[in-house]
């Protein structure tokens, strides 16, 4: 019965797996493996407190079970209880001195707590203990890339990712990281090679195809494919806030909403607002005081799960932005979009849809990555995001029926320790009404 439960759990059949775990516990009360795995499953289903209780019960019966300590640490880590997670990982290592999952998790938790020297020592120890473990090289490379002090850190990260691929040719995460790091170093031709290699292994994956175009290996599409955006942000959802806010000094929501509030005036909670491409909901708390109703839309269900936990939205929808706007004529007084239109090259259709979704006199506010000069065509940068020239943005806004256009330069994030230059764009829809 327990073997059946584990197989069902492994294949994602969680309802059936839970039923079998509980039947196993009815047959043998307190069976530690059933308690342990049921605890993991409960956490996966959003019942983390129950999961913690069940794994602790299992550990009372088998206190030297390193895997159970490790999984208990994972639940604490994913619920933000970092000190508890650290204690669990250390206990797992006390039970099994070379538990590589526990050691890698300990390193990540130390890094999240900004105990960088201790984290680095843990990553180094993992590499020393498991030099043929692809994950060990990958994690060291990611640590180096997240904490760039000099160009040599990126060069060393490239070497780590190549070693990760050497140890495990199927490690496409390392190929992804290798391509990104090579473009950060300006080594576009080598990045193209990495993405071509990835495509050979996963020909249906939209991520390497988009990034291959971004690095000049294929013709750039007019906008990022929906499948690419969904894949990237679903995968990124768990660590999105931490990575952007802590490691990339991400400021787009604050800068954008600050500029918008400058034209909205005193918060009266009277506006219907759409957060277009809301992600994990970073803009929500900032704009909420002005909103009678606050809606959010995003392609990534994983990101919306995080926005739902953050709260403050009246409705959250998983949808493609242009189609969603087209389906909601004259629905909002304000549409704001922080770092979403960077995945659109041609802005004409999405801004026309935005205009149609706004009431007369309504406001649009969004950020873009800046391109100097007056090119009439956006450029897909090697980051995978599009850059737009001021003149192009002005022309598209005018054609979509917007007036009172303001386009201000601002640094929205950092990359390789350097600011990424962007535009903060505000405009008002023609006609009488709000604004």
Automatic annotation (TrEMBL):
PROSITE patterns: TPR. TPR repeats lie at residues 66-99, 100-133. It holds the Pfam family Methyltransf_12. InterPro entries: Methyltransf_12, SAM-dependent_MTases_sf, TMTC_O-mannosyl-trnsfr, TPR-like_helical_dom_sf, TPR_rpt. It comes from the Bacteria. CDD domains: AdoMet_MTases (cd02440). Keywords: TPR repeat. This is Tetratricopeptide repeat protein. Residues 274-364 form the Methyltransferase type domain.
